[in-house]
Each structure stands twice: as C-alpha cells, then as structure tokens.
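I wish you would study the pair of lines that follows with an eye to the fold:

===
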Amino acid sequence: MEDTLRRIAIENSDTIVQKWLKEIQKLKEKNYTSSISDDLFEGTNRDFVNVIFTSIEDKGSMKSLEEFSEKIINLGWPLSYITDGLQVFRRVTIDYILTQSEKFDSDYFSKVLESVDTWVEPIIRKLVNEYSGSWENIVSLQRVALQELSAPLIPVMENITIMPLVGTIDTDRAKLIMENLLDGVIKHNSEVVLIDITGVPVVDTMVAHHIIQAAEAVRLVGSTCILVGIRPEIAQTIVTLGIDLAKFPTKSSLRKGFQTALEITNRKVVDLNDSDISNIEKMIESLRGKERDENTNTQTT
C-alpha cells in the first residue's frame, strides 16, 4: 500500500507542487517571510519542495536535505519556515491522494496518513537537527566572542590601565573579569587600575560583591583600584544595601578617576600658556635640526 501511495505522489508531483506553492504563498503575507523578495522566496520554495520529493523518491536520502538546510541557515531564515512548509506539504499531499481514490473508508484514510507521515517525519527530524546544531554552534561562537569583549583591560598610560564594563554582570562574567584584571595588572605592570561601571545598568548585592572581590584582588597584588562611573542611582543603591566601599577610591566619572590615577603615580595634567608652547616648539625644531645634521654627517662618511 505504501509503495502504491508513494507512486501516486511522485507521478503527480507537479500538481502537488503547484498546490503547495499556492498555500506557501499565502503564508508569506502573514509571517516572517513578508520582507523577502519574491524571486528569492519562489526559488527557495521550489528548492524546498524538490528536496522533499527527492527524499520521498529515494526513500529517505539525506544528502539533499543537508545541502538545503545549509542554504536556509546561511540565508538566516527561521526554523518555522521549515516546519510550516512541511506541515503544508503533508496536508496538501494527503488531500490530493484522498481525492484520487474511488473508495474511501477509515482504513484507507489511516493508511494514507501513516504513509505520508512516514515520508515527512524523517525530513522534519533531519532538517530540524541540522538547523538546531548549526545555530547552537553559532551561539557558542558568539558567546566566546562576547566573553573576549566583555572584560577588556586597556593600558592608557604607563602604569595606568582601565577596564570599562558594559552590560549585566553574572557569576561567569565576574570570574572572567577577575582573571583578566589580575593577568592584565601583571602584564602591564599597572600601579593603578580604573574599573569603569558607567555601562553597568544595575548594581545589586551580587554585582557589588563581585566588584569588591576584583578590587581586593588587585590590591593584594600591589596595585590600587579606583571604581569610577558611580551614578547617583547606583550610589543610592549601594548605600541602601549597606555595601562598604571605604577601602577603594570611588569617582563619579572616568575623567576624575584618571586625574586621581595620575596623582597616585606622581603625575598631573597642567595647562600650557603661549610662552610654554613656543618654547616646546623651539625645542622640537632644535632636535629636528640636530637629527638632520647627524644624518648628513653619516651620509658624508
């Protein structure tokens, strides 16, 4: 019986394809594919239905399914396109086969449903597995990339580094912050580290605890940690929670924190007047003249 039904579907594939395309076109106006160009949508639909019939004809061949799933993933289309398309194919195929029968009873109806499900279910499993596996891999790669960017340590001047934090801080990210912070302090020989929490939307007890741990770890390796970006609402939250930040300098902005870092490293920012600028320019010109003379002597020799 199944082979007979399979033969009916394959021999009348053109008719089934036309019915399927018509139903899929209706979905385009209602779902995610409405913004896709008509040419791309039509071409992909034809590839899809050809893959389905190839699998039915070859009794479960998976090669064409893998190639099609890769194409859909590269296009960035959602999984619902596959599931909707296969459900429509199942319905259209069952309706067509039933209309071709002169005799209709519950036993025949059950046989048709069972046969069509036997064709469609392996296709659904294969495409969904391929799709899910690919997205899991993409998400994994994105997670790694975000981790690499989530706790950068930037050396802005000799002995001074800055760690700007953006977004929510959870336990895993706090561990990464701690590791990057300690490695960076040793690598850059930092005397002062500024942790900028301007981009952290919420500072609760857990976040404050992680920040305090990181600052304490920096202090233990011989550096000073300055916490900057303390907005009024965050200051109020810290006071309400009873969190003690007395051990660590805090500043409301990165600019103020950097000025403090310069003072700790025995440096400061000074304003130059016109005479100072003129003297510096003369000094630079004098050094350039000496460099030109040395080059000339070297070439003569």
